[in-house]
TrEMBL record:
Residue ranges of every copy of the Glycosyltransferase subfamily 4-like N-terminal domain listed in the record: 11-179
GO molecular function: glycosyltransferase activity
NCBIfam families documented for this protein: thiol_BshA
Stretches assigned to the Glycosyl transferase family domain: 192-349
Protein name, per record: N-acetyl-alpha-D-glucosaminyl L-malate synthase BshA
Gene: bshA
Recorded superkingdom: Bacteria
Alphabetical list of InterPro entries matching this protein: Glyco_trans_1, Glyco_trans_4-like_N, Glycosyltransferase_grp1, Thiol_BshA
GO biological process: bacillithiol biosynthetic process
Length: 376
């Protein structure tokens, strides 16, 4: 099948999922065309089955805001016509589903039918999409997609709660390539470069937006390090990084905390981590938690959104109410202080991740695409 994928090309979860999906589809024989404003960060392999088409928005003095949707839909029309694309899969409703709908309409004028699948990822529904500025357009584009998927049951419920949706929403959860991490090319995590042998390594990875509650991450760690030797790895970039850095200074734990910025070495970092913290305000799925779990890293998270579907309380880690810093710290300590317990939780974290193996989930998308083609 020839599939066009539209996504954000950045480090965010939706872009990562879209890219990994495209790569997996190409390995299964499909021809995948990524259409976005920059080459997606994880799109390292270019093969005959993978193409990238950059959307350019030329500057013009009259434009106060660049009309990205216009440029995207025009680009899509050209790509569909030039490469015989059979199906469009847009990730993140804003503005991709809206641009996708315009693409469909323009092509219909030329008797070209293009089924569109929209995957909702989270903040396009729970934060941004819900804003009155966007809500009518988001509702419209969800209802005019041929098929709609959400990455968790919780996000499906939120979508039905916040929007007047007339379309059926199918849940296709995010996924991870379990085998890839079991056959890592590096066997030595080089843990000794980061911490002493008797120190525990605690990690947080995010885009450092408010919704991630990075100050809670620091405060949880502050409690943990009172009880044991530990280090905190803060991975990612975003508006709250400075807030976290200031808090680290105020708490006088600068020698215990490392801000690593955006990294392409997530696998290495998770390889030497003992525990992962994700105390988010909301999280439709929590791909970062799943990535930690597949590296056998137990997760302490909030019990919000789709997180309870991924992180199994008392098995792969522990869940607490949003903002329950002391509860999260106590659970973290209970896992870390007992080597046998830590080992058990590590094994169980991997076991819980296996449910989301790429080989279980990608066929669900292929099945959906087949149905979309038949319906077109
Ligand atoms: O919040 C982020 O990390 C970015 C955002 C995105 O769209 O890139 O992530 C959302 O989509 C991810 C992939 O489906 C989910 O794993 C994240 O939970 C979700 N973020 C939120 O709901 C806050």
């Amino acid at each position: 099948m020839k599939i066009a994928i539209v996504c954000y090309p950045t480090f965010g979860g939706s872009g990562v999922v879209a890219t990994e999906l495209g790569l997996a589809l190409s390995r299964r024989g499909h021809e995948v065309h990524f259409v976005t404003y920059k080459q997606p960060v994880r799109l390292e392999t270019i093969s005959s089955h993978i193409r990238f088409h950059e959307v350019n928005v030329p500057e013009y003095p009259l434009f106060h805001y660049q009309p990205y949707e216009l440029a995207l839909s025009s680009k899509l029309v050209n790509v569909v016509k030039n490469y015989g694309i059979e199906l469009l899969h847009v990730h993140y409703a804003i503005p991709h589903a809206y641009a996708g709908y315009m693409t469909k309409k323009m092509l219909a004028e030329e008797q070209i039918s293009l089924p569109m699948v929209t995957t909702l990822h989270g903040t396009d529904i729970t934060l941004v999409g819900n804003h009155p500025f966007y809500k009518p357009a988001v509702t419209f584009s969800i209802n005019h997609s041929d098929f709609v998927t959400s990455v968790s049951e919780s996000l499906k419920e939120d979508t039905l709660k916040f929007f007047e949706v007339t379309k059926n929403i199918e849940v296709i959860p995010n996924f991870i390539d379990v085998a890839k991490f079991q056959h890592q090319s590096f066997t030595d995590c080089q843990r000794e470069l980061m911490a002493d042998e008797d120190e525990k390594i605690i990690t947080h990875i995010s885009n450092f937006r408010k919704v991630k509650r990075v100050d809670d991450v620091v405060n949880i760690f502050f409690e943990i390090q009172k009880k044991m030797k530990a280090r905190l790895m803060m991975v990612g970039e975003g508006p709250q990084r400075e807030v976290a850095e200031n808090l680290v200074r105020e708490l006088n734990i600068r020698d215990r905390v490392l801000f690593l910025g955006q990294s392409n070495e997530i696998d290495k970092i998770l390889c030497f981590s003992d525990l992962f913290l994700l105390p988010s305000e909301t999280e439709s799925f929590g791909l970062a938690a799943l990535e930690a779990m597949v590296h056998s890293v137990p997760v302490i998270s909030s019990n919000t959104g789709g997180l309870p579907e991924v992180n199994i309380d008392g098995f792969s880690g522990f869940l607490h109410e949003v903002g329950d810093v002391q509860g999260m710290a106590n659970s973290a300590i209970s896992i870390l202080e007992d080597p046998k317990r830590l080992e058990k939780f590590k094994k169980q974290a991997l076991q819980a991740a296996e449910k989301y193996d790429i080989n279980q989930i990608v066929p669900m998308y292929e099945d959906l695409y087949q149905r979309a083609l038949v319906n077109a």
